[in-house]
Design a protein that fits this description.
This protein has 137 residues and is mainly alpha-helical. 69% of the residues lie in helices and 0% in strands. It contains six helices and no strands. Helix 3 runs antiparallel to helix 5 and helix 5 runs antiparallel to helix 6.
Length: 137
């Protein structure tokens, strides 16, 4: 039994700070969806057609949900305790970003004001800066 265990034991151990080898996470995914949210909000403001506006709202809400999804993946899968120790504002920043993307009061999902879309983009830019700092180290 001892010989079999030694033969079948892995000879190489790989470790990573994230679920998969680095390179699969990027805040750009959330930023692209947030850019879509803001662009839809701007187009909505410039168009009076009720059918267009209804469709714009639906698509914008879907995109806002995707922003939240991509942020949550970064928050829960990429960032680890050492990151939160070095950047103690991360938890609050992710909370603000996901709420800004969401359907609560003033959130981009429930607002057609492009300023709400810009607020999400601003939060994502802060997260992105920290993300790229962590990739250096």
């Amino acid at each position: 039994m001892g010989l079999l265990s030694r033969v079948l034991r892995p000879r190489l151990e790989a470790t990573a700070h994230c679920d998969l080898p680095c390179g699969v996470y990027d805040p750009a995914q959330a930023r692209i969806e947030a850019e879509s949210v803001k662009a839809i909000q701007e187009k909505y403001q410039a168009n009076e057609d009720p059918a267009f506006r209804a469709r714009a709202i639906q698509i914008k809400e879907e995109r806002a949900d995707l922003v939240k999804h991509h942020l949550w993946v970064l928050w829960t899968d990429y960032f680890k305790p050492p990151h939160f120790e070095k950047y103690p504002q991360l938890h609050e920043l992710f909370n603000k970003a996901t709420k800004a993307a969401g359907g609560g009061e003033g959130g981009a999902k429930s607002s057609m004001d492009p300023q709400s879309g810009q607020q999400v983009l601003d939060h994502i830019a802060e997260i992105s800066d920290i993300f790229w700092e962590t990739k250096k180290g």
